[in-house]
């Protein structure tokens, strides 16, 4: 029983660490718009523009280009506009517009694994 409890706790800790490592692969940088194709969204009455943007960003002195979809309020995106993006440190061609704040999901199995490990050890000591 002790072995199963420890194995379960270690697997929870490993899953938590894996999830945390996946969310920490993205780093912030500036991107600039090379071309913008924007149209006003008629379904929303607050002057929202749906834009398809060709962007460029530089990582380690190397230029990358990508095409993304991005909304803007009041003013459409234009050539030479800049904004923050998040790129994958292992593969800079993978980008996100917003950083995931879901990394707390990795803390749940990590904390449960640590608590389980402590409870298994305490139970073993008490039974002995």
Question: Brief overview, please?
Answer:
The protein is an alpha+beta fold and about 130 residues long. The protein is about 35% helix and about 40% strand. Helix 1 runs antiparallel to helix 2 (about 105-125).
Keywords, please?
128 residues, 36% helix, 2 helices, alpha+beta
Explain what the structure shows.
- With 128 residues, the protein is of the alpha+beta class.
- A hairpin with a 7-residue loop joins strand 1 and strand 2.
- Helix 1 runs antiparallel to helix 2.
How helix-rich are the residues, as a percent range? 25-40%
* Low-confidence runs of at least 5 consecutive residues: none
Strand order of the largest sheet: 3-2-1-4-5
- The chain-level structural class is alpha+beta
Number of strands: 5
Span between termini: 13 Å
Count of DSSP helices?
2
Would you spell out the secondary-structure blueprint of this structure?
Blueprint (H helix, E strand, L loop, with lengths): L1 H22 L2 E15 L7 E12 L2 E12 L8 E7 L6 E2 L7 H24 L1
Antiparallel strand pairs: 1-2, 1-4, 2-3, 4-5
